[in-house]
Amino acid sequence: MQYVTTEEITGKKIVKVLGTVAGNTVRARWVGADIVAALRNIIGGEIPEYSKLLTDSRNQAVERMLKHAEELGANAIVCVRFQTSTIAQAGEELLAYGTAVVVK
């Protein structure tokens, strides 16, 4: 299934709008990663433990959004957006959402 951040898909025509679809995940950081991150913060640079956590979270949220769209009978999603929010002191939600459509 194709998904894009734009309102249209080049070369395709939206023939039916099925509604909003979403997928989310809530992840907690691992205390060991926090310790390593604190040490890396002194030196500077990327914190790969957090990069992996964010990548895994984004992938899971997108997979869930795609599944939701498939359940509605969509073959594409337009206007995809990502949002994050804090759920608890060490928990973060990553939400992927968009508009499920049928394109030809």
Structural notes for this entry:
By secondary structure, this protein is an alpha+beta fold. It has one domain: Translation Initiation Factor IF3, CATH 3.30.110. It is built from two helices and four strands; from the N terminus they run ββααββ. It has helices at residues 31-43, 48-72, and strands at 2-3, 14-28, 76-88, 91-103. The chain has a four-stranded mixed β-sheet with strand order 1-3-4-2. The radius of gyration is 17 Å and the shape is elongated. The protein starts with a strand and ends with a strand. The model has no long low-confidence stretch (mean pLDDT 90).
CATH superfamily: Hypothetical protein apc22750. Chain B
Query: Order of helices and strands, N to C?
Result: EEHHEE
The CATH topology is given as Translation Initiation Factor IF3
> Structural class from helices and strands?
alpha+beta
Tell me what portion of residues adopts beta-strand conformation.
35-45%
Biggest β-sheet strands, sense, barrel = 4 strands, mixed
Mean of residue pLDDT values: 90
Distance between the amino and carboxyl termini: 13 Å
Question: Roughly how much helix do the residues carry, as a percent range?
Answer: 25-40%
What is the total domain count? 1
Number of E-type strands: 4
Tally of separate helices? 2
Q: Could you tell me the radius of gyration in angstroms?
A: 17 Å
What is the CATH domain class?
A: Alpha Beta
User: How are strands sequenced across the largest beta sheet?
Assistant: 1-3-4-2
Low-confidence stretches: none
Outline type: elongated
